[in-house]
Specification:
- The chain has helices at 5-32, 41-79, 88-114, 127-141, 144-154, 157-163, 167-191, 193-196, 201-216, 220-237.
- The chain contains ten helices and no strands.
C-alpha cells in the first residue's frame, strides 16, 4: 500500500509528539512537580505545562483517525490544485483547545488546593469531594450532551465538510471546532485525576485507554454508559 511522503511525515511528527509527551509523563513529571504547600506563580506555570503536555499525550492517540481524515481531504484538494494548507495547522487548533482546558483545570486545581480539598500530593483529601467527582463523571456519561459530543468526535465528517475554511487560520479554527467536541466528551473524565492523584501514572494510562476505546472501538454508546454506571457505583462505594 502506497503512502505519500507528506502523510508519512505527518504520522511520524504526531508519533514523536506523543512519545515525547509520554516520556515527560512517565519520567519527568514527578521530578518537576514536587509537593507544594505555598503556591507561587512559577508553580502554577509548571502545573499548567504539566496539564498541557499530559493532555497532548492522552488525547492525540485517539485523535489520529480524524487528523488522518483531514490529511486525506487535504491530499485530494492538492491533487485537484485547490488551495492547500498543511494538516499540522489543524493539529495546532486541536491542541490549542486542550491548552485552554489545561489553563482552566490548572486554575481549578489551584483553587482546590486553596480550599484544602487536594493534598500537597495532588490527590483528594476529602471523601465527599471524591464521591462528588466520580458521581458527576458517571452521570455525565449518561447525558445526551456526552453522547452528542462523542458522536461528533468519532464521526466528524459533517463538521469538517460544513465548517471547512481556507487558509492556515481556517485550518486552526477547524481544529478548535473539532477539539471542542473532544473536550465536551472527556473533560469530566480528566477531573477523575483529582480523586486518584493528578500524577498517578496508572490512572493516566487507564483514562487514556478509556478515551481511546470510546472514540475508536465499536459500540461507543454502550461502552460510555457502562463506564457511567461503574463510576456511579464507585462513587456510592465511598459511603458504604
Amino acid at each position: 500500500m502506497h503512502i505519500s511522503l507528506s502523510r508519512l511525515a505527518l504520522i511520524l511528527t504526531l508519533l514523536l509528539v506523543i512519545l515525547l509527551s509520554w516520556y515527560y509523563i512517565v519520567f519527568a513529571m514527578t521530578m518537576n512537580m514536587e509537593p507544594v504547600t505555598q503556591w507561587s506563580i512559577a508553580d502554577i506555570a509548571i502545573l499548567f505545562c504539566m496539564w498541557a503536555i499530559m493532555m497532548a499525550g492522552m488525547m492525540l492517540p485517539s485523535a489520529m483517525p480524524v487528523i488522518l481524515l483531514v490529511e486525506q481531504v487535504n491530499k485530494k484538494r492538492k491533487l485537484r490544485r485547490a488551495s492547500y494548507t498543511h494538516t499540522l495547522f489543524f493539529v495546532i487548533g486541536y491542541l490549542l483547545i486542550w491548552g485552554l482546558y489545561s489553563a482552566v483545570i490548572t486554575i481549578i486545581q489551584y483553587t482546590l488546593h486553596h480550599w484544602a480539598l487536594l493534598s500537597p500530593m495532588m490527590s483528594s483529601a476529602n471523601i465527599a469531594f471524591s464521591s462528588a467527582i466520580l458521581l458527576a463523571a458517571g452521570i455525565y456519561q449518561l447525558t445526551p450532551l456526552k453522547q452528542r459530543c462523542l458522536q461528533l468526535c468519532r464521526s466528524p465528517l459533517s463538521v469538517i465538510s460544513s465548517q471547512w475554511k481556507e487558509g492556515k487560520l481556517g485550518a486552526i479554527l477547524l481544529g478548535i471546532n473539532h477539539g471542542q467536541y473532544c473536550v465536551g466528551c472527556c473533560w469530566i473524565l480528566m477531573a477523575i485525576l483529582f480523586v486518584t492523584g493528578v500524577m498517578n501514572l496508572k490512572w493516566i494510562l487507564l483514562l487514556s485507554l478509556i478515551v481511546l476505546v470510546e472514540k475508536v472501538l465499536p459500540y461507543p454508546e454502550v461502552a460510555s454508559k457502562l463506564l457511567g454506571g461503574a463510576l456511579i457505583l464507585l462513587a456510592l462505594s465511598y459511603w458504604v
